[in-house]
Amino acid sequence: MAYRWKNTLSAADVTPESAWLNRRQIIAGATGLGVGAIAGPAFAATEGLEPNSFEDITSYNNFYEFGTDKGDPKRYAGEMTTEPWAIEIGGMVDRPGTYDFKDIMSEMTVEERIYRFRCVEAWSMVIPWNGFELADLLNMAGVQDGAKYVAFETLYRPDEMRGQRFPTIDWPYVEGLRLDEAMHPLTIMATGIYGKPMPNQNGAPIRLVVPWKYGFKSIKSIVKITLTTEEPPTSWNRLQPREYGFYSNVNPNVDHPRWSQASERRIGGGLFAPRIPTLMFNGYEDEVASLYEGMDLKRFY
Ligand code: MTE
């Protein structure tokens, strides 16, 4: 593991983006393997991918709590206080409680995961996240037998989140996963990008990343996690049930009612860059297809 550390970052740990890119090339050259090798062999699906720049990743965002324009999160997310921060973990767990973010970080091993990120709006990026497996956090709380789903909730603080002063969606933003999806090793709680603490506009201090699903499943700035027996409500499904399902797996064969999902625009490619084909499960088919065996992916979209 080339890039792994425990606990929160200190200023000395922060690697400038240019140096980081250099080191990545050196590592790739030295081992004769692609970029995916950094994250370990199980995640080699990202091999050869060039991550987007820190600038792209942090200036073109969806975070409706701060407005609906792609530039609003960068413009206004600085108004959100992220210290102190805690996550309330409850429902069907052995150790329910309010877990301080710092205490969580002291228990978790943060590693780097370079993932494709595909928004339902048909744009995409490649993002070098830092984070830990959601399974480790859930195991810390102790998942009880019979739990089937995991519900997530974003911070609700209209004083600091100007978008919440308008009924764009029914606040707070909520999301959910089936328990086996949540426990899958690809599913992470991300706490940084490029070795820097998570920028506010990307969901500081801690957000979900589920790389084989459309980006809206990857809920930001999480304050509550609940283990349940029932499929939890999700914000986009509540808003537009005909357009957004609970599963929302990236699928080039199932179009959005208003646009094709067969291809995507890679952010940062320039105005004339050709669209690229969208991959089944966003390129993670080998790792996750078995989760959906026997399910009609057109019906359970
Ligand atoms: N989480 C919250 N709380 N609010 C949001 O508006 N937008 C989602 C998702 N998580 C959203 C959210 C959508 S539509 C996308 S594409 C991703 O965040 C964008 O993540 P990024 O800005 O880090 O690229």
Short summary:
With 301 residues, the protein is α+β, with helices and mostly antiparallel strands. The chain has one domain (11-299): Oxidoreductase, molybdopterin-binding domain (Sulfite Oxidase, Chain A, domain 2, Alpha-Beta Complex), CATH 3.90.420. Helices cover 18% and strands 23% of the residues.
Q: What ligands can be seen in this structure?
A: ligand MTE
How many separate domains make up the residues? 1
- Overall average pLDDT: 88
C-alpha Rg (nearest Å): 18 Å
Give start-end ranges of low-pLDDT stretches.
Answer: 1-16, 22-46
| Number of helical segments with 4 or more residues | 8
Which class of secondary structure composition applies to the elements?
alpha+beta
What's the CATH architecture?
Alpha-Beta Complex
User: Which oligomerization state do the chains in this entry correspond to?
Assistant: single chain
Q: Proportion of β residues?
A: 15-25%
- Overall geometry comes to globular
Helix content: 10-25%
Largest sheet: 8 strands, mixed
Explain what you see:
The chain is an alpha+beta fold and 301 residues long. It has helices at 17-31, 54-59, 72-76, 101-107, 134-141, 179-183, 235-239, 285-288; strands at 4-6, 86-91, 97-100, 109-118, 123-133, 149-154, 174-178, 188-193, 196-197, 207-209, 222-228, 263-266, 276-277. It has a single domain (11-299), classed as Alpha-Beta Complex (Sulfite Oxidase, Chain A, domain 2), CATH 3.90.420.10. The protein contains eight helices and 13 strands. The strands form two sheets. Strands 1, 4, 5, 8, 9, 10, 12 and 13 form an eight-stranded mixed sheet that branches. The radius of gyration is 18 Å and the shape is globular. Mean pLDDT is 88; it is low at 1-16 and 22-46. The structure holds ligand MTE. Ligand MTE binds next to loops. Ligand MTE binds at residues 61-65, 119, 154, 173, 202, 215-216, 218-221.
